[in-house]
Amino acid sequence: MKKCILSLLLVLGLVSCDKKEEGDYADYLVATPITMSVTDFKNSVDVVAPRPINESGKIYAYQNYIFVNDKYKGVHVIDNSDPSSPQKISFIKIAGNVDISVKGNFLYADSLTDLIVLDISEINAIRIVNRMEDVLRDNVVWPVADIYEYDGVDYQNEILIGWDVKTESRLKSEVYDRFDDQILLAEAANDSQVGQGGSLARFKIVNDYLYVVDSHTINVFEISDLENPKDLEDIYAGFDIETIFNRGNNLFLGSMRGMYIYDITSPATPTFISEFQHGTACDPVIVDGDYAYVTLRGGNNCGATESGLFIVDISDITTPVLATSYAMDEPYGLGIKENKLFICDGKFGLKVYDKTNIDNLVSLNHYENIITFDVIPMDETLIMIGDEILYQYRYLDNDIELISAMNLN
């Protein structure tokens, strides 16, 4: 009986303490740096057996294969010969990787500031053939978080390859004493034969040139010798650039500030044509006919408070003007197949529209209860990446039909 009473008192005491301190604690998003030694980083590229995905990133389609980026870790290789039953083949370990592009069985991938070239002609025996060091800007961006625990990183011998973000309960007074400046910044921010990538891509191959955008620059590579790219002079292009799209002799750059249009008639030296400005927001862009379709995502570190779809008239490429706009919830990537417009609206699902009349988009379907990130409209199927799930749809006259949903875990 004494043991029972003592246990009860201990439990009541714990509950009492919890209640006493409950108001002093709060949940915070805590970002911890993921680092790797310099030596390990330079030797980090390897092809290993398939493994579960950690955080799905961008997608890329080439011939019968789909490549899915595992953010900052590498690329999952998937055999898509049968879209109703795609199969994992392997995983290419590439530290700090977020983007790829493919031409003629050579895959180009970023590894922080390095450009990696892999021969994928034998898909079961992929091999690295080139590593160009320090030709790109660092692609690791600061994540949305309240606290950044970067103390203790040995910047002399370690390389930052990503961030691990988790929700943690912490004592408010300790947080504000230690991270006062960070908290204020976070609160202010809360009041980014050629295959085909999605609308969120930063890599784009056009003929014999590979264009890679970073936050301010178009990095230009001449790749007529696919195995040995030539690093040409970079082109300063603007601010907060996130995506790149090509149509004919023009590059369309999506940035947090607007859309920049560049001429590549002389492909080694892109030249500025015009820009379309909007409020600060995360911004991919695609082009079809006389119109550019731009999704703006507000909230968090994207700046704007509202989200939407902007349709910009580019019939006069030197003077783009807003034609119309539509409210959205949380848009990320988008794609077009003939008169169908597909918008990945984050946790609000996939939205399908008939865009025959841009002034009156007609909703064909809204696939709710799924998380969507980016799409690639292929000739016969629509490929979409969501929350660690690869979706494929078949086109119908006025809709699409699910073929498969592959869990990448």
Low-confidence stretches: 1-21, 181-192
In round numbers, the mean pLDDT is 85
The total of helices stands at 3
- Give the fraction of residues assigned to helices: 10-25%
Structural class: mainly beta
Q: What attributes does this structure have?
A:
single chain, 409 residues, six-stranded antiparallel beta sheet, five-stranded antiparallel beta sheet, 49% strand
How would you characterize the overall build of this protein?
The termini are far apart. Helices cover 11% and strands 49% of the residues. It has a domain at 26-191 and 193-197. Strands 2-6-5-4-3-13 form a six-stranded antiparallel beta sheet, with no helix packed on it. Strands 14, 15, 16, 17 and 18 form a five-stranded antiparallel beta sheet that branches. With 409 residues, it is mainly β.
Summarize the structure.
11% of the residues lie in helices and 49% in strands. The chain has 409 residues and is mainly β. The chain has a domain at 26-191 and 193-197.
